[in-house]
Please model this.
Amino acid sequence: MPCLIALLALLSPRLALVVIAIFSDLPSRAMDGILLPLLGFFLLPWTTLAYIVMWDLGTHEVAGFEWFIVGIAFLIDIGAVGGSARSRK
Model:
């Protein structure tokens, strides 16, 4: 199952988040409430996916090098937004 989710994430991080939310309870365990995962789904899907995965891989907290991975995902999200804004001009 993790390999399937990784392939889905390469195609679309939002699709991977939906599959994770349907078949497991990782988003609700990694983040409190429903608002933060929902905002992450629409605004920063790579960052949300990276945070959930890093939370699950470690000691059920994101610390140290795991924040670096989440930061890289954030840069990918920002780059996707900036790239689409530049292509519209």
User: Anything to note?
Assistant: The radius of gyration is 13 Å. The chain has a mean pLDDT of 88. Residues 2-88 form one domain. Helices lie at 2-11, 13-23, 26-30, 35-43, 45-57, 65-88.
